[in-house]
Design brief:
There is one protein chain. This protein is an alpha+beta fold. The chain is 24% helix and 32% strand. The protein has two domains: 41 residues, Roll (SH3 type barrels), CATH 2.30.30; 118 residues, Ribosomal Protein S8, Chain: A, domain 1. The strands form three sheets. It has a five-stranded antiparallel sheet with strand order 4-3-2-1-5, with no helix packed on it. β2 and β3 form a beta hairpin. α2 packs across α3. The termini are far apart.
Length: 182
């Protein structure tokens, strides 16, 4: 991929778009419409062509390699989760979890699915001995954030949670730190 400063860039894991500010052999720095600058590994970004299409983007996120992949059953479908043991960030937006089928979920069904995924992620983190990871829930009305934190408080006293990096997530993420494994 030929990159030039000023190119429009799409970041797969974060589902962000921005303008390319600088790049090296291994990373790129973009500025998003919110004015914040972010740096990502070069393999996670794709150039947006003049027609507005993302060039050479993989068709499905499940095609990307990840050390651990877990299936979480949900009503009439299976969500493919990618849980990476280093710098793990999991996007709980429904369109990221089930891109082809997310519109058929009611708000309550979506919330239940997202909370089930959080529970499964905690189990997998425990199994893999992963101490820290970030859950991206978005800002929205704050219902998902509130329910995640209620779940953590009620069911997981060994897990500390705090707001994710504001510059990176804009208040739409929660970082989990596991202090004691099962």
């Amino acid at each position: 991929m030929n990159l030039s400063v000023g190119d429009q860039i799409y970041v797969t894991d974060e589902r962000l778009e921005g303008v390319l500010l600088s790049f090296t052999e291994v990373s790129v720095t973009i500025q998003c419409p919110d004015g914040f600058e972010y740096t990502f590994p070069k393999e996670k970004v794709y150039k947006i062509n003049e027609e507005g299409n993302v060039e050479n983007q993989p068709k499905l996120t499940s095609e990307l390699e990840s050390p651990v992949k877990r299936n979480v059953s949900s009503p009439s479908n299976v969500v493919q989760l990618q849980f990476n043991t280093k710098n793990t960030t999991v996007d709980l937006h429904l369109e990221a979890l089930i891109p082809l089928d997310y519109q058929r979920y009611s708000d309550l069904e979506a919330l239940e699915l997202q909370l089930d995924i959080v529970t499964e992620l905690i189990r997998e983190a425990n199994r893999q001995r992963i101490r820290k990871f970030v859950i991206v829930h978005g800002v929205g009305k704050g219902k998902l954030r509130l329910e995640i934190r209620k779940l953590l408080t009620d069911s997981y006293p060994e897990i500390e949670f705090l707001d994710g990096n504001y510059q990176k997530y804009g208040g739409g993420a929660t970082e989990l730190i596991i202090h004691q494994f099962d």
